[in-house]
């Protein structure tokens, strides 16, 4: 196969994979930029009341106290889950009215973990107004389309990965007569844009490939967790067939169950509790999610099942390899494991990616005459 034929094939892949996904990738880059600084922007845009000033070593309220307070506020509602904030002294307790086990009907109560006071009572998702960060997150994850949107963006991400690989292959032939990084400033605007597009593309190629590939993997998170629930989790729960989901009166005290889970994995930190009956948990257990205590292991979670009636440890579930890989991929995609310096670096790369995408669109719009001359030059070189 001649070099010209090979380059034309790679060029075809690069052009069409880029064109199909460019607008969606541009949307992902634009929405991803504020999401890099989610914690900072959420705090800056928050209207939450200030924390009550308490002595430094004030102990945290037990989950029994908080759950009882929640039930008093909403007697007919069932507790769905509890989340412990990693950065603030607060606990988020989610409740569902009646038996509607649907996340859209879930409302959350934000407690001060030290005083037990209600800091905020949030409306259910189906009636709560969307914040700016909510809009950015939903657009970035599924374009407000749920699982179909996630899978569609996964396909766009796969095309983006193909465009990156084909672009790297094409970089050598396009630039073989130029110095690395050279931008022909005194030539036409098309050539300047081409040189800038190539330079930014090759300079960010590794980052783009990592973020693109991990983004595709993250878009598969819902079906991957569903696969785990239908296989390993289902097999584990088969021994409970015939048993009913415990009601609130039958539940073991959640604080005691929490202490059992924490003692089971003392080198990890329990950060959330999923109550029995929750669609993301077990019908018969408290499901505790524990994470590591270091910047790296804090993205690795282990699920612990505690019998909801007896409060005794049942099992520490082993996460399958594909979910472990998913957990590892998330910090690489979001760049949120190395503090502000890494976030700033991720933001700079994101801005360069936006420039690459805009440059690619411009080059396609003025493509015909330029690429006709380019391929003619390659053909003449092969003939010579």
Automatic annotation (TrEMBL):
Record Pfam families: PepSY_TM
Keyword 4Fe-4S: no
Coiled coil region boundaries: none
Keywords: Membrane, Transmembrane, Transmembrane helix
Keyword Ribonucleoprotein among record annotations: no
Signal sequence extent: none
TM segment ranges: 151-175, 196-217, 344-365
PANTHER family, sorted: BLL7967 PROTEIN (PTHR34219:SF3), IRON-REGULATED INNER MEMBRANE PROTEIN-RELATED (PTHR34219)
The protein's name: PepSY-associated TM helix domain-containing protein
Lineage: Bacteria, Pseudomonadati, Bacteroidota, Sphingobacteriia, Sphingobacteriales
């Amino acid at each position: 196969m001649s070099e010209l034929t090979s380059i034309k094939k790679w060029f075809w892949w690069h052009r069409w994979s880029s064109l199909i996904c460019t607008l969606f990738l541009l949307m992902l880059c634009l929405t991803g930029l504020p999401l890099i600084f989610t914690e900072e922007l959420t705090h800056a845009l928050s209207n939450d009341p200030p924390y009550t000033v308490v002595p430094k070593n004030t102990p945290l309220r037990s989950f029994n106290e908080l759950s009882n307070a929640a039930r008093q506020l909403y007697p007919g509602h069932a507790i769905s889950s509890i989340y412990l904030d990693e950065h603030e002294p607060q606990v988020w307790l989610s409740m569902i009215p009646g038996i509607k086990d649907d996340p859209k009907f879930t409302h959350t109560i934000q407690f001060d973990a030290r005083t037990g006071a209600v800091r905020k009572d949030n409306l259910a998702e189906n009636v709560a107004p969307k914040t700016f960060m909510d809009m950015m997150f939903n657009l970035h994850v599924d374009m407000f389309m749920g699982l179909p949107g996630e899978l569609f963006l996964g396909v766009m991400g796969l095309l983006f990965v193909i465009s990156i690989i084909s672009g790297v292959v094409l970089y050598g032939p396009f630039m073989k007569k130029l110095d690395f990084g050279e931008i022909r400033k005194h030539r036409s605007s098309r050539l300047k844009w081409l040189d800038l597009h190539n330079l930014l593309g090759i300079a960010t190629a590794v980052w783009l490939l990592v973020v693109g590939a991990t983004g595709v993997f993250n878009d598969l998170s819902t079906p991957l967790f569903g696969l785990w629930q239908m296989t390993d989790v289902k097999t584990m729960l088969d021994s409970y067939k015939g048993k009913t989901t415990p009601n609130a009166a039958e539940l073991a005290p959640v604080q005691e169950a929490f202490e059992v889970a924490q003692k089971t994995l003392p080198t990890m930190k329990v950060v959330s509790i999923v109550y029995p009956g929750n669609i993301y948990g077990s019908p018969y257990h408290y499901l505790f999610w524990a994470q590591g205590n270091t910047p790296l292991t804090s993205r690795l979670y282990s699920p612990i099942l505690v019998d909801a009636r007896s409060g005794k440890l049942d099992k520490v579930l082993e996460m399958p390899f594909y979910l472990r890989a998913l957990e590892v991929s998330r910090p690489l995609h979001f760049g949120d494991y190395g503090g502000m310096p890494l976030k700033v670096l991720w933001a700079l790369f994101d801005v360069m990616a936006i420039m690459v995408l805009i440059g690619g669109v411009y080059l396609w719009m003025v493509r015909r005459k330029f690429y006709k001359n380019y391929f003619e030059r390659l053909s003449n070189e092969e003939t010579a």
